[in-house]
């Protein structure tokens, strides 16, 4: 059997992630590998921490990049904070709220599910009701930007409510970080995780996470041990800590962290508010064009994610045929629907480096062509 | 605050890993990111599976690369296979045997520890005794190549013993895979994990794993659910499966998998037996040179890992001063001692792309210089 080097095509990535990666980031990725305890690398990791604090808008000391994808970041938040004895209010308005529930269930904790329609934001009034009905709930968990539907929830109001009811918050910011306003400290978020491959426009495989002082205190006062060794953040912190000697935990993914560092340097150069604004502008351009093509959004206007535009597949149009055509003829990837929206919607991402004029123009032109070809 | 791009120095990596990465692999790493469900990427993943089967010398259908480092691969083996009701014989002759024990304990299973001196292979007779004394043990777990000490254990004999006692085997091949003889099917290994950054000479961050049919059957007949969602291989298999539609589990680390693919293509070009032989030859060259320098091995001659040479730090020589000098003056990294061997030993790696004549020559010349400078 013969195996050859893999030379991937040059795609434009406008699905739900991974998003387009800047050549600067790919270049950083391929720099020579150094040891994970090399002094130069440790200096870079300190900068990654500072830059993550900047993009999360937090002073949390525990702000690191987990050496695994966003779904491991989600699990790290739940398994470190939640014990079997705890009650957790979980908001479910898409696939990732469902995954949060799965995490709570596997821990053996008691979930209280607040169900909201797919394609809409989490209903703040419903959450308030749940908080009132369950004064013994210890955590409120919700997804800021639901990647499966394109809905943006009001994290600020949800966290304020949670705090008013003495609840800690666990927030999924996989798709929101860098793409929409997010202020961990101002909004009093206790545990938050994201992914490298969405609006940070880095390669997939890392999960930025941040824990508040209160979250750290909860971890330090657990009654039961954390089952996972790999995700036990009380061990991981000794490797990422800037104070004193680094303790070996696992071998850090050195090159992926080069890439994350570079993507964060780029975001810092642009300014986080400017990045939010750019995503908003690109979304407005795209939305105007989609309207001209007669495509309708799934999500109500005031609850839409600028970085993830979910539109109904027009009656009679073949979902897979259109996506395959875009890929084959334009090297353009847009996303299929996920879960309840499979076969019913497309997800058009404008994340990070992909939120550019040229991408909007290409996407609209290619979609116009495809819709003409594959209309009934 | 200003942040600049990180330009790492060009090191020669001769520690316990990460090892030197070939320019071919770094080049593959930086190729344009495609979607994790892109048809071209799925084709490449199928090749990664086939190539991993080749390097593991197995026909196991469940042979994949986990999207996280080797320590997550270890945890994946334990949490998928072992339940709280199970008894596990754990061999401990270094840091990673200790970590296996930690995994067993966190699951709540009953460990039987077979302690062997650090710097020696696992004692086969002791293991046989434990198997006789504990006929109810379900698993035997051991480290093939102890990265903390440089000792190679007799995996073939240990697995044969385990099978004779109706035990399944869980084997750590983080440092052994690609560097010494390893035959998963012939030796009847049930669950095995490795790391990308040792003798495969890929960047760190991925963990190749493989489960036998019997291991899969054990997973399918568990009485209790697996706590981890991220490491639940019954879900992961639906993404890596070649049959039918790929089910989304998490976003694969696309670029790291390009690199792993390239490193495996290189290993396939060389031939796995040739790779084992190369490691042996380079080890013999290095060992001869170390003897000339008066450096003594920790591990008895017939139990030494060719790819990880652990030598005693001579009396009166300053450990850190020597390592810092090698790094500063030669850009050469060798490893410090770990655990019981901290401050007492150096670990000199000859892993994968690092197992080359030029590396051996550099290391011996640089060590000679350093030992002269920092001798009493």
- Number of structural units classed as domains of chain A: 2
The run of helices and strands of chain A is EHHEHEHEHEEEHEEEHHHHEHEEH
CATH class of the largest domain in chain A: Alpha Beta
Query: How many strand elements of chain A?
Result: 13
Q: Which strand order does the major sheet of chain A show? A: 2-10-9-8-5-3-4
Domain Aminotransferase class V (chains A, B): 33-337
GO molecular function, one term (chains A, B): transaminase activity
Protein name (chains A, B): Alanine--glyoxylate aminotransferase
Cofactor (chains A, B): pyridoxal 5'-phosphate
Record the SSE blueprint:
The structure is a homodimer of 376-residue chains.
Chain A: E1 12-14, H1 23-29, H2 39-56, E2 62-66, H3 70-81, E3 87-92, H4 95-107, E4 110-115, H5 124-133, E5 139-143, E6 145-146, E7 151-152, H6 155-164, E8 168-172, E9 191-193, E10 207-211, H7 213-220, H8 233-240, H9 254-270, H10 272-292, E11 308-312, H11 319-330, E12 332-336, E13 345-349, H12 357-374
Parallel strand pairs in A: 1-12, 3-4, 3-5, 5-8, 8-9
Antiparallel strand pairs in A: 2-10, 6-7, 9-10, 11-13, 12-13
Helix pairs in contact in A: 1-9, 2-9, 3-4, 5-6, 10-12, 11-12
Structural account:
Chains A, B: GO terms for molecular function: transaminase activity. Chains A, B: Keywords: Aminotransferase, Pyridoxal phosphate, Transferase. 2 copies of one chain form a homodimer. The first copy, chain A, is α/β, with parallel strands linked by helices. Chain A folds into 2 domains: 12-17 and 272-374, Aspartate Aminotransferase, domain 1; 23-268, Aspartate Aminotransferase, domain 2 (3-Layer(aba) Sandwich). The first copy, chain A, is 41% helix and 15% strand. The first copy, chain A, has helices spanning 23-29, 39-56, 70-81, 95-107, 124-133, 155-164, 213-220, 233-240, 254-270, 272-292, 319-330, 357-374, and strands at 12-14, 62-66, 87-92, 110-115, 139-143, 145-146, 151-152, 168-172, 191-193, 207-211, 308-312, 332-336, 345-349. A 7-stranded mixed β-sheet of chain A has the order 2-10-9-8-5-3-4, sandwiched between helices. A 4-stranded mixed β-sheet of chain A has the order 1-12-13-11. A two-stranded antiparallel sheet of chain A has the order 6-7. In chain A, helix 11 (319-330) packs across helix 12 (357-374). Chain A starts with 11 loop residues before the first strand and ends with a helix. The model of chain A has no long low-confidence stretch (mean pLDDT 96). At the A-B interface, helix 1, helix 2, helix 3, helix 4 and helix 9 of A face helix 1, helix 2, helix 3, helix 4 and helix 9 of B.
